Amino acid sequence: MNIKTTDFKRCTVIKTSGRIDGSNAQELAQALKAVIEKGIFNIVFDMSEVNFMASAGWWVLVDTQKTCKPRGELVLAMVDQGIKDSLNLVGMGSYFNTFEDIISAVGSF
Amino acid sequence: MNNLEQICDFVTECAANAGLDESEVYAVQLAVDEASTNIIEHGYGGECPSKIDITCETLEDGLKVILYDDAQPFEPTDVPEPETNVPLEELKPRGLGIFLMRKMMDEVKYQPTPDRGNTLTMIKHHAR
């Protein structure tokens, strides 16, 4: 799993691509943890190239959100419609602010 | 776990061939992924190799997916329903896989195989 992080003045953008499932969700968890350990609690997850996310990935995002709040927030950008629909279906969509583009997501902080 | 993508590719092709639309194909992908992950993690306790046989059958109005495993008999009613729409801090990671499978598919049926293992049958109808 290729994970890229980019630091901005008020937040960090983390980006990966492809599938997030039980086989690689912990790699994402480690990458998010590394950001938080630097004292950064404002995080944008760029999902523009993520085309599938199983519940193992959702739990990583939920755990990250629990850690970030209330000092900061994890927001999601450019979420695939299928992922968004399934998140909303189980009531998890409400835990995350979502943005249609990266600039708006970064600008929200 | 490294074969999840291969499983997903297989059911994606079957679902598309059965005439399911994009959102229905995603629903099948997610349900089968969650089912396979549960079998590997809970059924086989993460041990390798974890054997799962998958067959897909095109129906007149959708797709039937059957997953067979050799793991311990599984009783889905033993798994508590996840709490949804609760405050974030109260959310507990449990039971989401089965819940999702039921939400994503039109029919979900578990049957223990007499000697050993389980058969999971899931059906997705297309909307049109």
Secondary structure elements and pairings:
The complex is a heterodimer of chains A (109) and B (128).
Chain A: E1 4-7, E2 12-20, H1 25-37, E3 42-53, H2 55-68, E4 73-77, H3 81-89, E5 98-99, H4 102-107
Parallel strand pairs in A: 2-3, 3-4, 4-5
Antiparallel strand pairs in A: 1-2
Helix pairs in contact in A: 1-2
Chain B: H1 4-17, H2 22-43, E1 52-59, E2 62-69, H3 96-104, E3 107-112, E4 118-125
Antiparallel strand pairs in B: 1-2, 2-4, 3-4
Helix pairs in contact in B: 1-2, 2-3
Q: Can you identify the CATH superfamily of chain A?
A: STAS domain
List the uncertain runs of chain A.
none
Average pLDDT of chain B, to the nearest integer? 89
- Give the strand order, joined by hyphens, for the main sheet of chain B: 1-2-4-3
Helix-strand pattern of chain B, N to C? HHEEHEE
Number of helices of chain B: 3
Rough outline of chain B: globular
Structural class of chain B: alpha+beta
Largest sheet of chain A: 5 strands, mixed
Report the largest inter-chain contact. A-B, 24 and 29 residues
CATH architecture of chain A: 2-Layer Sandwich
CATH architecture of chain B: 2-Layer Sandwich
CATH topology of chain B: Heat Shock Protein 90
The ordered string of helix (H) and strand (E) elements of chain A is EEHEHEHEH
- Please report which band the strand proportion of chain A falls in: under 5%, 5-15%, 15-25%, 25-35%, 35-45% or over 45%: 25-35%
What is the fourth-level CATH superfamily of chain B?
Histidine kinase-like ATPase, C-terminal domain
- Can you count the helices of chain A? 4
Could you explain the architecture of this structure?
The complex is a heterodimer of chains A (109) and B (128). Chain A has 109 residues and is of the alpha/beta class. In chain A, 39% of the residues lie in helices and 29% in strands. Chain A has a five-stranded mixed sheet. In chain A, α1 (25-37) packs parallel to α2 (55-68). The longest helix of chain A is centred in the middle third of the chain and has 14 residues, at 55-68. The mean pLDDT of chain A is 95. In chain B, a hairpin with a 2-residue loop joins β1 and β2. The model of chain B has no long low-confidence stretch (mean pLDDT 89). Chain B has one domain: Heat Shock Protein 90 (2-Layer Sandwich), CATH 3.30.565.10. In chain B, strands 1-2-4-3 form a four-stranded antiparallel sheet, with helices on one face. Chain B is built from three helices and four strands. At the A-B interface, α2 and α3 of A face α1, α2 and α3 of B.
